[in-house]
Fold this protein.
Amino acid sequence: MRTVALDYGNRITLCEVRDGAVVERATVTEFAALTRWLGPQTGRARVAIEACREAWFVVGKLREWGHEPVMVDTTRVRQLGVGHHRRKTDRIDAELLARALEQGHIHEAHVISEARQALRLQLSVRRMLVQQRAHQVTSIRALARVHGHRVRKVHAAYFARALRDTPLDEATRALVEPLVLMVEGLDVQIAFCDRRVQALAAREPVIERLMTTPGVGTIVAAAFVSVVDDAGRFRHAHQLESYLGLVPSEYSSSDRRSLGHITKQGNAYLRTVLVQAAWTVLRQKQEDPLKEWGQALLRRRGARVAVVALARRLAGVLWAIWRDGTVYEARRVGLPSKAGLERAAQSLQFQAARIARASRKRIQSSRRERTAE
């Protein structure tokens, strides 16, 4: 089988190697021009491509043409030599990827299924519309304040209605009217996207199960499924939490270990909605083990640490529900883990040992005092 690598930039750079030697190079401006080297009539090839915006399309086309695409994990490309000695060009990168693929050194990234790709793209469209609406709402509030008016705080979905009910002078209302019309148009488009997401989510039975978790609605569950794709590709919850960038960064050496802020690797949107879900859990009225755990941490470490820690735990709970094919059970969440029980037992043993040593010291001291008398 042939060994080929593609580097995507402003142009597409192709490099093919055989037995460690470069046998073909090419640079094209669009993917269709690659048919000369990778079309359906060419010899079967393994093709390495870094994860990028075009990657899903390229992977699908290569499979359609009879090749074996290999998605490269971009977080590990430096280990392959990319960027060494301050030399990084499309030509060099393509050659390094091709050589690494031939030698079996590629860290392959997961390619999510087509159904999950469609779900993630629809969520992306919704996210952009929501962000645009939030920007317009902020702008309208600022313009109203310039003229001495304050619009009461409401959810962005109800902002246009609240503004209509706010007494504004004619000059202010005329000033913000174009932005208000834009917000109302965005409300319509977001509602349309919500219906599309609901339709796609209805095809995923796991989403309904995930939504039994406190704070988790359709958007959070759908985002989780669209990113994770397959619960079985993670061995344990911590591996998933690390994949989502919700674990602390670590700087360790032989004599010290230091933990910093979370790594923020992985999908930023899923981290955001998990943090929002964590806030919802902390603020809900009904009691729940997740809420109690989060509030206890909030009292000890503050809100910022508590909400991120709760988002991390939510990710683990959702993964376990998916893995086991079950639903959220507060009773099970409230049970201490095996690791937690082991740590508690070790703590009790340590405390018991300290009490025993202190007791022996008191007895020995009392004996010395009696002997001295």
User: Anything to note?
Assistant: Strands lie at 2-8, 12-18, 21-28, 45-50, 68-72, 248-252, 257-262. The mean pLDDT is 89. Residues 338-372 form the longest helix (35 residues).
